[in-house]
Amino acid sequence: MRSSATPMHLPLLLVALGGVLLTRPAVGQKQPPAKPRVTGTVTAAAYLPADVLFTATLSAPDRQLAALRPRLASFAEEPAAAAILARQELAQGRLMLFGLAGSVGVDVWKALGAVLGREAAIAVRSRGPGQAPAVMLVLLPREPELFDRLLENVHGLAGLRSEGKPNEARSTVEHGVRVYAAPPNAFHCRVDDALLLSNDRPMLLEVLAARGSGSGLLASAKRYAGALVRVPQNALAWAWLDAKRLRELAGETGLPDRIDNPLGGLLFGGWWEMLRKSDDWLAWMTPVSNGVAVRVQAAAEALPGTHAGFVPDARRTSTVPDWSSLDGFVGELRLSRDWHDLFAQREALLTLSASSDLANFATTVSTLFGGLDFIHDVLPQVRPPLQLVAAEQKFSDAVGVPTPRLPAFALIAPLRADPTVPGLPQRLDSGSLMALSLINLDLAQKGQPAYMLDVQRHAGQRIFVTRFADPSATMGMRMAPDDASPAGRAPDDPEPDKPPASVRYNFAPATAVLPEHFVIATSTDLLREVIDALTDGDEQGGNTAVPASAGKVRATGDRLRLDAAGLRRLLLENREALVINRMLEEDRSRESAETEIDVALELLARFAELSLVADIAGDTATARLEIHMRRSPANEE
Amino acid sequence: MDALRPFEPSAARPWDHAAASHLLRRAGFAPSALEVARALERGPARTVAELVDGAEESPRHVELDEIGATLAVRDDIAGLRGWWLLRMVHTRRPLHARMALFWHDWFATSNEKVGSAALMLQQLRTFERHALGRFGDLVRAVSQDPAMIVWLDGDENVRGRPNENYARELFELFTLGVGNYSETDVREAARAFTGWHQRQGRFHFVEGAHDAGEKTVLGTRGRLDGDDVIELALRQSACAARLARGLLAELLGPEPPEELVRTLGGRLRATDYDVADAVRTVLGGAELFDGRWYRARIKSPVEFAVGVVRSLEMGVPAQSLAQAVSEMGQRLFEPPSVKGWDGHRAWLNSATMMVRMNGARRAVQGGFDAEALCGRYGLDSAAAAREFAARLALDGRVPDALRGLLADASGPPHEVLRSALLVLMSSPEYQMA
Prior knowledge:
The complex is a heterodimer.
Chain A: H1 9-22, E1 54-59, H2 61-76, H3 79-85, H4 88-103, H5 108-116, E2 119-125, E3 134-140, H6 144-158, E4 161-162, E5 165-166, E6 171-174, E7 177-182, E8 186-191, E9 194-198, H7 201-210, H8 222-228, E10 237-242, H9 243-250, H10 262-277, E11 280-288, E12 291-299, E13 319-321, E14 329-335, H11 339-344, H12 346-349, H13 352-366, H14 374-378, E15 386-391, E16 401-402, E17 408-414, H15 424-445, E18 451-458, E19 461-468, H16 471-475, E20 500-501, E21 510-513, E22 517-521, H17 524-534, E23 552-554, E24 558-563, H18 564-573, H19 575-585, H20 590-604, E25 607-617, E26 620-629
Parallel strand pairs in A: 16-20
Antiparallel strand pairs in A: 1-2, 1-10, 2-3, 3-9, 4-5, 6-7, 7-8, 8-9, 10-11, 11-12, 12-26, 13-23, 14-15, 14-24, 15-17, 17-22, 18-19, 19-21, 21-22, 24-25, 25-26
Chain B: H1 17-26, H2 33-53, H3 59-73, H4 77-90, H5 94-106, H6 111-114, H7 117-129, H8 135-143, H9 146-151, H10 165-175, H11 183-192, E1 196-199, E2 202-205, E3 215-217, E4 220-222, H12 226-235, H13 237-251, H14 258-270, H15 275-283, H16 301-311, H17 318-327, H18 350-367, H19 370-376, H20 382-394, H21 400-408, H22 413-425
Antiparallel strand pairs in B: 1-2, 3-4
């Protein structure tokens, strides 16, 4: 039998639970300053071998759990949590935990806190080619007595101890410490204040042997200690990856030099280079207002000159509006690249085939600009950052409303204020018009709905827009009444006053060439709003969708920003379409599909915003992910 | 009527696993072990009666049924293709599903020209409604079906400029067959169908475009309209023979004997073209269980793919199922021509055989829950799993060449089941219905 919470939930679940677990009720509170982590007391790293590939540590998980207990308890009672916890493996885990807590006379929260303790860490080490990695878990209890009572009960249940004595057949004493073995490959021991648990007995014994000498352990490893000083004092969790060693182990099967995809290469080539050459990666999580921030840093040598296009000169960078002020804002992606430089260096950045694809693309696009070369004439006029904005569609001018309803997208390319090509705006205008005509021709040739081209003015700017013909005329027919709901409509018909249309009606391209921007959008409405934002709505005819007061910032680096409310609206609008998709593509019952979508909606209601900012500066690449939760779920407001 | 006498199990022709499985394959798709067990328990007569009368549909099928209109409104023909196949997977009325597919081939209409998922769905609904009804009602419904009108240029068929496309195919493919009508009959019949147009997805009779004058069709003269022409065609023995030959080829196997064709044709005329009666007669007849028809038909891609999924009692993503069926040569809603698919031997060539083998591999190694099936049928040993696979896929009649491969399968029962099914479902024998 299928569980109602399926893999689609897992990423959301992890983020949601992470958010709930790790979000401190910091509203209105000042966050402590980010001080470097001081290692005075015994840490979990003192029980891990020095040559681990990866380690992650939770700081004071018991206290975090206690602080969040009320939130977690209320979350556990909600339908979304119920659907998730109904998963067989989670349900079994819960039952075990309840039983264990009851056996020592504490509630489950207390028991869980006692298990997690003051610090918990996990580490992974290679066992050689073709072997599953060795994993070790270290728990440092804050209340050893309660912890030991819990452990004793586990030992009793597992048959590792009986009548207060260890089962000699399933345990041995190593370096003065009793090591228990549970099938198939779980070894653990209680040593000093710590519990060590591993799937690799030699690793466990190695740690026990080394703990007296103090050497050979992660706590004393220079590279780890050097990295750890960057983790602030208030970090809730941190993780470290030995990228250098990982590369050595991967050998020839490691990361290839270049990305074999032109788009991927231009978007992520800089990150790829840093990833390939970095020695270690460090990530830490800190609380921020109503949420958490995760910062990931990779240290490597600075990017070579061929990759300069990935870190354009900040002085050339354009200012960008605050797109979140757009009506129905869903998300934005901002990419700071020197496109001309990247195209020029394509052979150094991409594989031969990807480079060749890119050259072909440039040649094709050049034909649109009548005598101008795309790489040498057009791209030098483009300034960073390139912006992709998504917002809810209104279909105000549309003759039909498509299902599913997708957001409108706009691509905004800032242009030089002093173009080096004469008549650039006119060239871009004619190029846009030709591109729209070619797309239309292609659609018509494929028998798909074509559109009508029109020229309009908005905010004093000339814009090219497209408009689809009546879907019933294009598609030829509507549903007959006995094959659809009354009046020949499908049950999820979004706007009863407009005819339903196919998914293609989500894309009615529109373009504009402004004095310092080129904009292409998938809807005229969004194009108009983008123009208003770029011109501050101060031109005649502007509808000031984004007020001038929204301000502009000079943006460097890359940024991805998603608005949870916008995503949720989108999900709500397309709920039926998503349910149908799951019924067909996962062969599931309507009830199960609806439960899944509703759980996703409920989880999304807890989020406010997710943003990822990534930057390369000198020898360090940094990515900062911020997850902001809502003070109360959106559906309760 | 001796040629179609009812089947009476005997020592020579017992009602056993192979017979029950053979009947269920012909009346639907490759059955699950549970379906075979149920048929064995109920006996041939009751099984045939239940197949023809149709059981209550499964809740999943009912749920799926409800979303067809939404896909059509979106003009999502690819979605509709997968949706139709998924309904075949979940139906408790496999014979009705097979007959709707049969009519889709008989009255082959392609969305390549129609260009509307809504109209194709509407036509499918017509086939489903009349799947086991009277053939005359179906021909009349198809003649007024908007997709058919678009497909065969009915909207261009107007008084003074008759378009002969529909009249020609009505005689040549849908009712009489070549040699049983004249060119004059086609021209005159085309006049009778003038004004039979569609508007906004509905049949629309345009009186001003209709030629109400006198015509002579198939030897009858009068102010004939489309209904009259259909009636005249149905009166011809050639029509009954053509339908009988088609049904026998579908249910028994290719090139049915003329004696059977004549007998069933006579029965069709006598019952006013009652398709349910004809199908019941063939499926319940002794002829079906004659050894020469056992695995005598090559499964169509739809039969093959839906059969694999149904017999393995697994779930499947609709789009990948539709994609696989299309790659095997049967793109639903887009038959290659007005003649439909050539079928039988034309289904198999080196490329489509490879797609079938890959499809079987994806099913058996992908979505198929072998452990669950072992648990359901109590397969607790490698031998039991081997035996089960052999019965499920080949009615236990495993060729010697495959026996060695089956014996090689080792490991826990679910792994043996998986390996054995992979071997058997990729075999030439499994391609035969």
